[in-house]
Amino acid sequence: MVDFTGRSCLVTGATGFLGSHLVAALVEHGARVRCLVRSTSRRDFLPTLGVELVTGDVTIPESLPSAVDDVDYVFHLAGLIKASDPADYFRVNYLGTIALLEACRSRARQLQRILIVSSLAAAGPSAPGRPVTESWPCRPVTPYGKSKLLAEQAASAYISELPITIIRPPTIYGPRDRETLLLFRLVALGIRPHLPVRGEISIVHATDLVTGILLAATHPAATGETFFIAGDEILSFDEVISHLARAVGRQGLTIPVPRWAVQASARAAEIMREVAGISLVFDRWKAVEILEGYWACSNERARRLLGFAPRIQVADGLAATARWYRAAGWL
């Protein structure tokens, strides 16, 4: 069991979906948790005990040195996953990571580990029957993925000075997630989209990902290394939709979605954002990811070196997530 009793931990991105799960787990494992939060951030899911809130932003370097003072662990989850201007990905994901690492280098004198949460998008898509591994040449296909890869490359420049570990999760799901909620709602309406590519997809439940993060943050062999933390199952998109249909209790109607329809829907979503100010994660770049189809990664290295073993099967995890959405009034 991972023990953080008496340890001081800074979490950036603490108010986000994954961040709130990580903060709760750290508190449960005995840590004193400091959360870097923006003044506008919602804090609905943060624990009320064992947590210190510090106002700051990774894009404001002067707000970071006091946040990293006297911490043992830094968990860097803050990042931008949707933006109308691609330059914003680089400003937040790339330059924000550099700003945090500079603050750690100058002020975090008792640091045990910096855990940076990147993304499978930094590595890029896989190939049929060939899940991406850590040695796979990186070829990101979106501004988001490129910004995450740049952040990883920036972190590598600090490895001789700072104890850094990088985690690359695939698509994350679970209670509190507002992005995959959109797909749950679509299937609950009786619509089962069938894409023009079969695809192979890795996903990971937030609880399993948090377990992997804590293992990677404390394992001596993880310093200076990169790991994919993912579930064991690699599924086609249709298999994911079938699990979702069972989770929401709606068989639904399978509707073929041709390539042009994916692209047109992406453009429509962008127009909604421009005209009505409605921010959706779906845009032309998400359409590129969807049409690539193959986003599978291997967790073998994390299993072998860290002892990581995901416990939540996709069918069970999606069903539990659907129950949480309904209890929360989201579905």
Description:
The chain is an alpha/beta fold. It has a domain at 8-170 and 205-231 and 295-311: NAD(P)-binding Rossmann-like Domain (Rossmann fold, 3-Layer(aba) Sandwich), CATH 3.40.50.720. The chain has helices at 17-28, 65-68, 86-107, 120-123, 143-156, 181-188, 206-218, 237-248, 259-276, 284-292, 300-306, 314-328; strands at residues 8-12, 32-37, 51-55, 73-76, 113-117, 164-168, 171-173, 191-194, 200-205, 226-228, 234-235, 253-256, 294-295. The strands form three sheets. Strands 3-2-1-4-5-6-10 form a seven-stranded parallel beta sheet, sandwiched between helices. Strands 7, 9, 11 and 13 form a four-stranded mixed beta sheet that branches. Helix 3 (86-107) links the parallel strand 4 (73-76) and strand 5 (113-117). The longest helix is centred in the first third of the chain and has 22 residues, at 86-107. It is globular, with a radius of gyration of 19 Å. The relative contact order is 0.14.
Mean pLDDT: 92
Please identify the structural class as seen in this structure: alpha/beta
In spatial order, strands of the major sheet run 3-2-1-4-5-6-10
The run of helices and strands is EHEEHEHEHHEEHEEHEEHEHHEHH
CATH superfamily of one domain: NAD(P)-binding Rossmann-like Domain
Radius of gyration: 19 Å
The percentage helix is 40-55%
Task: Please provide a brief summary of the model.
By secondary structure, the protein is α/β, with parallel strands linked by helices. The protein has helices spanning 17-28, 65-68, 86-107, 120-123, 143-156, 181-188, 206-218, 237-248, 259-276, 284-292, 300-306, 314-328; strands spanning 8-12, 32-37, 51-55, 73-76, 113-117, 164-168, 171-173, 191-194, 200-205, 226-228, 234-235, 253-256, 294-295.
